[in-house]
User: Fold these one by one.
Assistant:
Number 1:
Amino acid sequence: MSESEEQALAAARARIADYRNRIERLDDNSLDLMFREGRNHNWWLDKPVSDDQLREVWDLTKMGSTSGNCLPARILFLRTPEAKERLKPTLGPRNVEKTMLAPVTALIAYDVNFFEHLPKLYPIRPEMKDRFEADAAVAEDFAYNNGSLQGAYFIMALRAVGLDAGAMGGFDRAAADEEFFKGTTYKSNFLCNIGYGDLEGIMGPRLYRFDFDEACQII
Ligand SMILES: Cc1cc2nc3c(=O)[nH]c(=O)nc-3n(C[C@H](O)[C@H](O)[C@H](O)COP(=O)(O)O)c2cc1C
């Protein structure tokens, strides 16, 4: 290891030690915000969301771990009425009105050619690119898997900065690809309305969640 590499490693370890000194775990309020009380939202207050907020959300989302640091997610934010109108015909009937009302709708996609960026994103093993270049099905599976993880990080990042999320799988992905990503290597994954949720859109109490023993095993 060169001297500068040793210095960079020491600095990286010092950063971890530093934040561990400052914070041990999330407090109860933060856990409520992120997990226990955070809900999926269906109706939106007339309260704007700024571009700076969207940038902050990306700057958190991008920090979530992905395999080989591949970062395959690509996000198209639809804010203008014109952009929303282009999305409208792809939406399932129950997702139309709330999407038109939301201050912003994110189309979360993934890049099947994500591997072209691996030399920059994962310089530790630049040859990782080769197996994806050789097999499009393996590349797409990897992109969808890791892009979905990033989609989940995105929802949690929205909550972390005090925004609400309304995720939606009910749309025609192929039609959205045709409308927004024609001629590119991007493919749609899911949609997420963004804003400040109007409580009128909450239609009932939290649905049942599996207890540990119903979903988990320790062997
Ligand atoms: C990836 C994803 C796709 C979803 N698709 C839809 C959808 O198309 N339409 C809808 O009304 N809700 C959709 N939902 C919302 C879920 O139904 C909702 O999160 C779930 O019922 C649990 O509710 P809660 O998060 O408020 O506890 C989706 C949620 C996720 C995470």
Note: Residues 39-40, 94-95, 167-170, 190, 206-207 surround flavin mononucleotide (CB under 6 Å).
Number 2:
Amino acid sequence: MGEPHGIGLVGLGVISRQYLETLAGHTGVRVAAVTDLDRSRAEAVAADLPNARVVDDVAGLAADDEVRTVLDLTTPGAHADVALACSAAGVDRYGEKPLAAGLAASRKVMAAADAAGTRVGCAPDTVLGTGVQTARAAVADGAIGTPTAAVATWVSAGHEAWHPHPDFYYAAGGGPLLDMGPYYLTSLVQVLGPVAWVQGAASRSRDERTIASGPREGERVPVEVATHVTGVLGHANGALSTVTVSFDAVGTHARPIEVHGTDGSLVVPDPNRFDGDVELRRAGSKAWEVLPPSAGFEGAGRGVGLLEMVGAAGLGDVPGSPRAGGDVGLHVMEVMAGLLDSADSGRRVDVTTAPVVPPLVPLTPRDVWHG
Ligand SMILES: NC(=O)c1ccc[n+]([C@@H]2O[C@H](COP(=O)([O-])OP(=O)(O)OC[C@H]3O[C@@H](n4cnc5c(N)ncnc54)[C@H](O)[C@@H]3O)[C@@H](O)[C@H]2O)c1
């Protein structure tokens, strides 16, 4: 095996810990440099990594000789600038969702990468785990006959209940749709294929939210975005998905995603996780059966999409990579922007992007993808 693939990491907040856990000990990659607006965070992380440097900013990261791919874990408002700096420097970028804080910025990111010949990967990579991939394989194998519909539901009372700096969830680029929508919509695209049109509706319950924990407990955060979004997605294959995402609810018994077809109904587990039971009820039966995992990265954690993109997840350099890619990220962004536009105008909105959905992940044990 050659030199480990050099990763430059920007954004050392809450989610970075999960990525560092996934990358730790992987012989195919090495975090070579880190940066954060808050330098003390970068220094604290670098101190725990073998031979990682702290650099001043994203430009320094992208220019670093040992960095081949930048991992962007900044907040959504910074994603486009980070991605554009990477393309300008000729460096690949894998980043957290959403691809950027809006449709125009997301298009710019992909156009700049195309022009520069750089690659763009985009979370969520949870959809590459055994949960969503097994569901996708079952639908592709005809387990529910012809797919007709899906219902996706994610609701909560809002992330200010637990996040110490929840401002970005209520600013442009945030809201329950841009924050949690990517998990649900990317899963629906994985299982049912691209979306051709959307019809949405949205509301906002309050103009301020109050931080409930951490050093800023009690501080108020302005709300600039819709906090309850619902709508219908018309998939190119004719299936209709009904989606609800909300920061304006207390709890739910709804299953994360149900997919219905002429011969069966399927429950897809939480798409914010990598695993979970896929349940199938076949036509004529009253019983739900749990399908054994048949596809996906077993026991995966956040960052497996980055490993796949850099060819370090045991699948080799296969066509279709990155499987957590910018093309699907842009499509999902167009679907989300369409839902919000439709909510404003009251009209149905056509979706123009139609990505080729990357190939199914074969069932891949942890010791293979984490070699
Ligand atoms: N927190 C979660 O549970 C969670 C889960 C999944 C995905 N995500 C996604 O991960 C991303 C980060 O979320 P988080 O919760 O870790 O946020 P966070 O606020 O905890 O951390 C973000 C970090 O990025 C740094 N940063 C922002 N702009 C920067 C810039 N231009 N240059 C350098 N550093 C910059 C901040 O200083 C901060 O340290 C978001 O896109 C979010 O949607 C978060």
Note: The two ends are 11 Å apart (CA to CA).
Number 3:
Amino acid sequence: MRFKPFAAISLATVLGAAAPAQSAAGGGAEPAFSADRFRADVTFLADDRLEGRDTGSRGHEIAAAYVASQFIALGLKPGVENGGWFQQVPFRSATLAGPVGLAISGPGGSRSFDNGADAIVGPSLAEEKQDIDAPAVFAGYGIDAPGEGIDDYKGLDVRGKFVAILAGVPEGLPSEIAAHLGDDKGAAAARHGAIGLITIYTSQYARVRPFASRAGGVRRALLGWVGKDGAAGEDAPGLRAGFILGDAAATALFAGARRTYAAVRAEAEKPKAHPRGFALATRVHLQRSSAWTSLVSPEVIGMLPGSDPALRDEVVILMGHLDHLGMRRNAKPGEDAVYNGALDNAAGIATMIEAARAFAESGAKSGDRPRRSILFIANTGEEKGLLGAGYFAHYPTVPVGRIAAVVDLDMPLLLYHFTDVIAFGAGHSQVAEMVARAAGEMGVALSPDPMPQENIFVRSDHYEFVKQGVPAIMLATGYANGGEQQWKAFLGGAYHRVNDDLSQKIDWESGARFAKLNYLISRALANADRRPLWYKGDYFADLFAPGAPRAVPPAGTSTAAGAGH
Ligand SMILES: [Zn+2]
């Protein structure tokens, strides 16, 4: 799971009631799922000697070799065109080289601001040297969603300008749509011709993610994949800079405008408020230099060929991210310095391997092979911004049009006997029906998203495939049966910390059950007569798969993680 700095924030925590568990006997001889094998994989991948599996590190390379060797043992076929197991992803790493020049000028004169104190400006992956001077415009929350009745750019001319926007999204949007709109702000600014995006803080956002907590972004390296054309992969083409302003600089930015920054901020505090945009009377001058280095890191890809000649050219992808955060800098001697990522995401990779084993073994024992082919992928660069999956979605080893669906495995919280799950992304397509059936078979309930403020829908690799128009889901273990306390304790105390390690009380039996559930879902996707269709009228279908055929959702389908809020 990646940390998402500028995603939507809604303080409302909606706790969904779990649907009653169904019980139904699974038919036929099901493959066995082993807690011990699950434990073996997690134990190796989360070992200190893998040094936190950072993208591009030796520890990650060793982990990738381990996953490839498991694929070989299961009899999978290499998933890369050249007959290899590794799709090598080229990355660019950027750091700031020297001080950043940032000045705001207007009716009150010109004033310079310090990077790290008044503003947070990171490095650029697109231009090594930049000198940009342009007027500024305020555009509310910076949301471009006419379908939801929100068009913050209406009536504003932002072409060639810096657009300043409030962090977060207004309250009241369904959770997955809110998460997407929070993530889409850079692209929205680019679509309207802006060259820079300035994020300013509402008081509410400042309480959740204080400005000071972001100051490390000034020193941190930024990583991005590089396309086959040699240019950095771009979600927001034409947008040359994105940064955060603190209160003093934001106040200066609004000098001489129709309203002050304080007035806008006060309005944003009110329930259901949605401040409107207006032209500003100031210009922004940004100068920065970035130093680049190159690295490569692999996606590990294995293929189980399908059995049905009419369907085996289509693939179902089952994937999880193998990378994590590496080593902790500034650890004192004797202190734990390894981000082991036992649950994030050694557990997801172990789930994938155990599901792959189930497919391979039922094929070998009873000739019960899935009709569609299945691609198993261990992603890289997830913690750095869904980079490996983003690269694969742009340069897939099978054409995107032949990817029927994606099941992502990220940070399953396997610290208790889960009795419900949240299926992020499922409610938009017929995948919902398959998830409901598989969960029902295991007596597991489906719950709505109980933590919409976490924006989980856009924080893992499946989202990169949603953006390519492919139905994609990720299951999270739910709040029932003690899950709520476990989630809160984990997010507050272990998530992205060195203690997400093997000292946690991992419930290995839950790992085996989670593997079985994801196996049943993948198998249903692989064996269905027709690939899952997006639902008619669905927001993400209309946005990312406008030309694709649609299905009418059956009455009573409500597995959308974001339903109801
Ligand atoms: Zn993570």
Note: The two ends are 23 Å apart (CA to CA).
